[in-house]
Protein: Fumarate hydratase class I
Amino acid sequence: MSARPPIREADLVASVADALQYIAVYHPPSFVKSLAEAYEREASPAARDAIRQILINSRMAAFGRRPICQDTGTVNVFVKLGLGARIETTRPLAELINEGVAKAYTDPDNPLRASIVRDPLFGRKNTGDNTPAVVHFDVTAGDALTITVAAKGGGSENKAKFANLAPAASVADWVVETVETLGAGWCPPGLLGIGVGGTAEKAMLMAKEALLEPIDMAELLRRGPASPLEELRLEIYERVNALGIGAQGLGGLTTVVDVKLRSHPCHAASKPVGLIPQCAADRHLTFTLDGSGPARLVPPDLSLWPELDRAEAETKARRVDLDRLTQEEVATWRAGEALLLSGRMLTGRDAAHKRLAEMIRRGEPLPVDLRNRAIYYVGPVDAVRDEVVGPAGPTTSTRMDGFTDLVLDATGLLVMIGKAERGPAAIDSIRRHGAAYLIAVGGAAYLVAKAVKAARVLAFEDLGMEAIHEFVVEDMPVTVAVDTEGTSIHRTGPPQWRRPAITHAGAPLASSS
Ligand SMILES: O=C(O)C[C@H](O)C(=O)O
Structure:
């Protein structure tokens, strides 16, 4: 039998690029199925509407071949290199992988947002092509090269946690207590990846790798646990969902659709635990190269995506004209109320806020007038073809909390739009200023972008996706998250849906290891 031909450099680069393009637009079918089931089960109207938007968005992204989320992620790559694999190259493997990443993210047919900044400490300048990826290598037996690519959103990655527990401490207790502190910035409903054992870095790596396993919680619930590890997965799944956090932290039945857990031997004195949440933009794919050509990626069966429409939710929503916004009108909005926004809004997120705050502190005139305006915390994907803007879902507002009082004081800004909860100081400032905070659904970026009818950059163009834009929107769906009285939906929603945790067999859950 003749030996296999070597893996060609070009095939490797093309396969990485194709896989990243693929996962940017197609949710894994197992995620869509679980989310559709969660939608059917959901009893909380606010959470149900959020899940509906995520599912509609997922279908639009799959059919329109545009990113599910504006945050097209940090590229995580897991390489399993068979000892006998031959690659026809003189270049380092990571360099080839990064060439594939750059090719995917700058694809003119479907450009993905570049989110990576070169230097995390100083300058924070965007690299422009989303490189470099974070690459992990594992040398295995055999002669194949297996690569898993994942695109991990910043909001969920920001909520990763690690603890070195006492050997007798309960992992389930720690996970449940920790998830309760995470807020909604990780865009639930999603998954939890948990790694137990090894060392600190091993536990975190296992948590990340666990997220790449197929979703099988429905199957596990049906057949019951077959091992202590599966029992623990079930316990955590039931207890986390019993917290009532729900989709987008609005309060509801489903916070996680699955809990993935890996373990590894560890020191007798230790019990390292890594926890990494996965947002609703679950994106990963594995392919194998054996020298026979590039990976052949078959599009999923799109009939799996449920066909839902927004009509029902939108007929109940209050219409708001952003061009005639007054403090009196904003004061009539109540936390939890659904709004449809039309008119002009400004955009600005982390880097723009930092710059605005520096200008305010130096007493310099600002490049935009924020008085009585709304600002949307967003970093959109670049537009293609007839689009006004690419996918443009909200970013985590909590990161803007530190600027809120200063900006509200100095500018007369009236409305902020983002996702997830605001902290106590920001809520207090919103109340004192008679302002309001609204949320769009994180993970519904393409759907939100369809409400944007015109877009232009107004200031800080050098910040790229973080520049200040002006959007003209029509019927953009949002929910009042903090009203002028300081009532926060993220504080009032989840307690209403909190319930005692029961086992899959219906018995009350006592905590285990
Ligand atoms: O960067 C973004 O667009 C969003 C970010 O992933 C977030 O969830 O806050």
Observations:
- The CA atoms of residues 333 and 483 lie 6 Å apart.
- The radius of gyration is 23 Å.
- The mean pLDDT is 96.
